[in-house]
Amino acid sequence: MTKHIRSYITCLAFTTTAFAQETIYPTPAQQKNIVLTNAIIHVGNGQVIEKGGIAFSNGKITALGASVTGGADAQVIDLQGQHIYPGIIAPATDLGLTEVESVRATNDYEEVGDLNPSVSAIVAYNTDSKVINTLRTNGILLAQIAPVGDLLSGSSSVVQLDAWNWEDAAYKTDDGEHFYMPKLLPPANPRGPLPPATDRVKDALDKVEQVRAFFREAKAYIQEEKHTETNLKFEALRKLFAKEQKLYIHCNIVKEMLLAVDIAREFGFNVAIVGGADSWQIADILKQNNIAVILEQPHSLPLMQDDDVAQPYKTAAQLQKAGVLFCISNEGFWQQRNLMFEAGTASAYGMTKEEALSAITLNTAKILGIDKTTGSLEVGKDANIAVSTGDILDMKTNHVTHAFIQGREVNLDNKHKQLYERYKYKYGLK
User: Fold this and answer.
1) Distance of alpha carbon 299 from its chain centroid, rounded?
2) Which CATH superfamily is domain 88-374 in?
3) Strand, helix or coil for residue 6
4) Which of 219, 229, 356, 364 has the greatest number of beta carbons closer than 10 A?
5) What is the structure's pLDDT at 101?
């Protein structure tokens, strides 16, 4: 290779790197008092203030109502009739744990083995993921980062989506353990031949019993005053048995959820079901046992062939009517940016707009155990705020103009917007 060719390649590589350099930085801590005025405020608990303002200082909401001032030195932003919402929360996602699904080197969401309660997902969280910025653009400001696995995959954590590293991002660490219930229903599109149905069910039930036995051993270990050896896996379950953590059980059909209820009863765990496609059928049982539901992927076909084709859209309203604590989630990571539109669909199938908003804000915060600090716009809570020119649940009018995480106004740029501007320039459309 000649010297000139080497120089050209080096120059080209530098130019490409420079062009692709990220210019989206985390925002420093809030310095000035900020007041948002002349807005429609959706509190998140069902209340709406038709024309009011909100003030926040040092990351906390200090005032909310029809007439709000922040002092002589406050930065006042006149929103001219825009809508203010609590920051939306995305639960049960592998956001930041995977970037390109087909590129193995970018995936760090699963550990080897079936029983990994000591694995903590947050240490693998990548704050530099380009997907994160696309969520903030739509008003999603917090997320629960959850590991994936065959049985006990490890603990999830709640993160705020404007950080330099996972330590900065941590909002609530190790909020719960995740159990992926073996499926008692064969896949709709199997790859290759399947064993007989009786064998599949038996294998699944055997795995559930394996997890039960593991919990029993862990309980006995925790009840011992002294140990000859430390078992890290059992130690990781101390908070779960003390009800300081939730057990998130991923399952969808009625039989699987009834097994989840049985596990909650046997061990006294605080349980939430993730998935819950058929939860509407046993809503009364879930209510009686105080089991919450993270309703996953409402924009989908029904689970059973004889269900109403619109059943996934109606499930949220049915859980609401039954008094079950639930929130709405979206499967995967990049799909999370559509979370508010899933709630919008629920509002067209039996829920009010404010109930649907609670299903992606306050209800989510309650399930994740962070409702004392976020999930609604109330004095004393963190200033996690999204501002939209129109209805944030409607993809036609959703246009987020400002977003604040703990009082810091975050950058709403993202890779999609940058590419849009790049090709507008290329084709002379600016």
Assistant:
1) 16
2) Metal-dependent hydrolases (3.20.20.140)
3) helix
4) 364
5) 81
Q: What is the DSSP letter of 109?
A: -
Contact 278, 259 (CB under 8 A): no
Prediction pTM value: 0.91
Task: Name residues whose C-beta falls within 8 Å of residue 25's C-beta, 6 or more positions apart in sequence.
Answer: 411
Q: Give bridge partners of residue 329 from the DSSP assignment.
A: 296
**pLDDT tens digits, residue range 373-388?**
999 999 999 999 999 9
Tokens, residue 145? 């980062």
- Reading the block at residue 188, the tokens are 């709709």
Q: How far apart are CA 85 and CA 376, in angstroms?
A: 8
Supply the DSSP symbol for 63. Answer: E
**Sheet strands side by side (includes 292-296):** 88-93, 140-145, 152-160, 170-180, 246-251, 271-275, 292-296, 326-329
| pLDDT recorded at residue 186 | 64
CA dist., res. 414 & res. 246, Å (int): 33
List C-alpha distances in Å: 277 to 63, 72, 257, 280, 341: 40, 52, 10, 8, 18
- Domain(s) labelled CATH 3.20.20.140 in the chain stretch across 88-374
Domain 25-86+375-430 CATH class label: mainly beta
Residue pLDDT, tens place only, 86-120: 999 999 999 999 988 888 888 888 899 999 999 99
Task: Give pLDDT, residue 216.
Answer: 97
Average confidence (pLDDT) over 144-160: 95
pLDDT of residue 195: 63
Residue given tokens 């985390």 in the structure block? 26
pLDDT, one tens digit per residue, over 403-429 is 999 999 999 998 888 899 899 999 998
